[in-house]
Design goal:
Length: about 300
């Protein structure tokens, strides 16, 4: 839970379109909502930020304390976060910068807000610089122009999943194509880890939602498709097995076995794309006349 001071800042921020007084008056402030690494509960923290082109940077300063702040550990476990800036709210992928890029971005932060340099001087730990990039751009390749039916919504989610695994594979191949000084491929970075972990968590949520809600709902109206749903459930188990292998490789901050990760990612791509192709072939015609969002729905529509 936020401290009483933090909660008062959060309440004031939301009540006044992102503007607050007191020690944060006139400063650039955002609200970062993470998912607890252990609890799974939502945690919202007010943080100063610095803009860098079209992205936002936050620093795990903890006022120069000896340990990283809790929100930083949370985003390592759950890379998709919610960001509130002014009156705008959006999901973002949180990626800690590494190496030379971290040094470059931290220098940019200090130029904009010198106090972070003071925090770094107080502690021996390297202050994390986290890049917040929109998790879902306004336009992405293959996205349906309009989502009017449940078939459109399923296709939209599938298009996003295909795009995410394709992007992780492209970034992984780029690492392998750029050998280090000793001729060996460099270790895979946090950018790949965070993006792949976010993809795995979104895929798991999607399949759990299908198994728990979408498939049973369709099956009630189409009992003759028992064999189809048995096959889809079996394919979910196959994808989940590969996903588990990937998740195990993403458990640490560095991907310990890049070659195995690459192989498991290729297997994920093959299994997932075959599954999505079959699911679209058999289910989209059944869902083409089902309105989306459902009649009477309020708030953001849930992912099927």
């Amino acid at each position: 839970m936020p401290t009483s001071f933090h909660q008062s800042v959060i309440d004031e921020f939301r009540a006044n379109g992102g503007k607050v007084g007191g020690p944060f008056a006139g400063g650039d402030l955002l609200l970062l909502t993470t998912t607890g690494a252990r609890s799974g509960a939502s945690r919202t923290t007010p943080l100063g930020y610095v803009r860098h082109h079209d992205r936002l940077l936050v620093v795990g300063s903890n006022l120069g304390g000896p340990r990283h702040p809790g929100w930083y550990h949370n985003l390592l476990a759950h890379p998709v976060v919610r960001v509130e800036v002014g009156t705008e709210s959006f999901e973002a992928l949180a990626v800690p910068a590494e190496g030379a890029r971290r040094e470059e971005l931290f220098a940019h932060v200090v130029r904009a807000s010198p106090g972070y340099g003071d925090y770094q001087a107080r502690t021996a730990r390297l202050l994390p610089v986290v890049v917040l990039e929109r998790a879902e751009p306004e336009e992405w390749e293959g996205r349906p122009r309009e989502v009017r039916t449940l078939a459109d919504k399923v296709l939209e989610v599938h298009t996003w999943l295909r795009g995410q695994v394709r992007q992780v594979r492209a970034e992984t191949e780029a690492y392998f194509a750029a050998p280090g000084a000793d001729g060996a491929p460099p270790s895979l970075g946090l950018q790949i880890r965070q993006r792949c972990l976010a993809f795995c968590q979104a895929l798991e949520f999607h399949h759990v939602s299908e198994d728990g809600h979408l498939f049973p709902g369709i099956a009630r109206h189409h009992p003759h498709l028992t064999d189809v749903f048995d096959r889809l459930a079996d394919e979910h188990r196959t994808v989940a097995r590969v996903q588990g292998e990937l998740a195990a490789l993403l458990d640490g901050l560095a991907i310990a076995d890049p070659a195995r990760f690459r192989a498991e990612l290729d297997e994920m791509s093959a299994q997932l794309n075959a599954h999505l192709d079959y699911e679209e072939e058999v289910l989209l015609p059944l869902l083409a006349d089902v309105p989306w969002p459902p009649a009477g729905a309020t708030g953001p529509a849930a992912t099927p």
